[in-house]
Design goal:
CATH class of the largest domain: Alpha Beta
CATH architecture of the largest domain: 3-Layer(aba) Sandwich
Number of domains: 2
Largest sheet: 5 strands, parallel
Strand order of the largest sheet: 2-3-6-1-7
Length: 345
């Protein structure tokens, strides 16, 4: 809703993965190199872990988009699987129909497929996102597939991505852990990287004016989001919505206090104490006026009132835009500069 207001042609802070928006910090660049090396190494097997929203799926999308056509990609994104579901999904990704729905039958079919691709000189790459959801049996099956040998070495290269518990799950299976060439964990962005990340996404979106987020605001965003890109996006998007709703072309750092609870799920309202014994009879709850409200209630009421006013303002602006026939700008961002690779800095 605020694109035209800020002169943007794309949404700068979506929480869905968009690989053309990815900011390649030093650690993201390393993870990308490791994933790419796994594709072209005959013994490629890497495990990339990271917190929720740290950019794993976005990196995978970028890696897949830059893959050469001379390979076969089997990308598995759904991982709440039962015993034989993984083999069934792999066959489907390979464009094959299971001839036998037993696990042994599908294993033989996958083996024949890998031998055929190896004979043709076509590498097969298995990528599994959200791999922390795989069962131990699924991980054992991945180990078995990665261990299949052809004349040129292993028949399948593997990239596993998941939350921090993935590494623990993999290392709990020594036979699997020994096959992994590289483990890499994505941390949150540093304060400096957070500032560059915000500026980069605004630049790609078409913003060419003065900085919207000052240094102190960026520092607070970094601390609240712990450097996690998805949380940074949520906070920045919320602050830009507040600015748009109040018809001001600048970001007010005080908005963070009002939106952090709603966006990050934080709750500063005092919690109700649990009775010490089940036999204790609670006093009847009185109807509260504002003068009787408990501590913190007044601030919450003000926040709700401000949100309501903001929504009304948005409705009015939408109606005005509709009557005027205005639409978001579509001009390309010709001022987007290439990022300098971290190893050249």
């Amino acid at each position: 809703m605020y694109l035209d207001f800020f002169g943007l042609h794309r949404h700068p802070f979506r929480i869905t993965p968009e690989d053309d928006f990815i900011y390649m910090s030093q650690q993201h660049s390393r993870a990308y190199v490791y994933m790419s090396s796994a594709i072209w190494s005959s013994e490629g097997f890497v495990v990339i872990s990271g917190e929720i929203g740290s950019g794993k799926t976005t990196l995978l999308k970028k890696t897949i988009r830059n893959m050469n056509a001379d390979l076969k990609l089997l990308n598995v994104a759904y991982t709440n699987l039962e015993s034989k579901d993984l083999f069934s999904l792999i066959l489907r990704k390979a464009g094959l129909k299971a001839e036998d729905d037993s696990k042994v039958g599908m294993l033989f079919q996958i083996t024949e497929y890998l031998e055929k691709m190896a004979a043709e000189g076509t590498p097969v790459v298995l990528t599994i996102d959200e791999a922390q959801n795989l069962t131990r049996e699924n991980l054992e099956d991945v180990r078995m597939l990665a261990g299949m040998e052809s004349m040129g070495g292993p028949s399948m290269r593997v990239i596993l991505l998941g939350q921090p518990e993935l590494k623990k799950a993999v290392t709990s299976i020594p036979q699997l852990s020994q096959r992994v060439k590289l483990f890499f964990h994505l941390e949150g962005l540093t304060p400096k990287e957070t500032a560059e990340y915000i500026d980069y996404r605004l630049l790609v979106s078409g913003h060419g004016g003065n900085k919207l987020f000052d240094k102190d605001t960026v520092q607070e965003i970094h601390e609240l989001a712990r450097g996690i890109p998805r949380l940074i996006n949520k906070l920045c998007d919320g602050m830009m919505m507040c600015a748009y709703a109040e018809d001001r072309p600048f970001i007010d750092p005080h908005d963070l206090k009002n939106i952090r609870k709603d966006l990050l799920g934080e709750d500063d309202v005092p919690k109700v104490k649990t009775p010490e014994t089940a036999s204790h009879k609670a006093d009847p709850v009185p109807t509260l006026g504002m003068s009787q409200a408990p501590e913190g209630f007044g601030d919450m009421a003000k926040t709700l009132q401000r949100i309501a006013s903001a929504l009304e303002s948005i409705d009015e602006r939408l109606a005005q835009m509709s009557s005027e026939g205005t639409s978001p700008k579509k001009e390309p961002a010709d001022n987007v500069k290439s990022l300098t690779p971290f190893w050249k800095k």
